[in-house]
Amino acid sequence: MSASIPDGDTLSEVSDLEVYDATGRKIRFGSFFATQRVIAVFIRHFFCGNCQLYVSQLTSEYAKLSKAFEEAHIDIIVIGCGDWQPIENYSDITGFPSRKIFADPSLSVFHGLGMNSQTLARTPTGEKKASYITKGIIEGSLWSIWKALKNPLLIGKQGNIAQLGGEFILGPGDYQISCL
């Protein structure tokens, strides 16, 4: 991750980049937050078990607060670094609507927002694990592998397994950005 929060000029540049929806259609990234505030959640890759658990918990929490989000004109989207083909499967696993999941296979938006770090490291020893991490390293790894093997046509389309993600609050407009 970059040491600094992207500024409005950076966000304006990134706004013109494209991501893919669940049907493979290109969508201008800035269109998500042109007229409303959006929480953009960038995940590691579509087969990452911990990211699946995170988005599942996010789905559950969002359902509880959906009316408040709607009244405040705030939406949530998820963007993975893989190809668009795994999106429907990811939606089935996490319960997050596929119409709000997108793919950035070139990593142009990831890198444009400063998400350049890659690692396979887990939560450091002694640090408290996030509440959504309910599986140990072996169980989580086996679960991810099983999900991938159940969908052999998607293997290799999940994205870079070492790519780190992040969360941003964007909009409304091309110059409004915050980090979570």
From TrEMBL:
Name of this protein: AhpC/TSA antioxidant enzyme-domain-containing protein
InterPro entries membership: PXL2A/B/C, Thioredoxin-like_sf
Region forming the signal peptide: none
Gene3D superfamilies membership: Glutaredoxin
Top-rank taxon, per record: Eukaryota
Pfam families: AhpC-TSA_2 (PF13911)
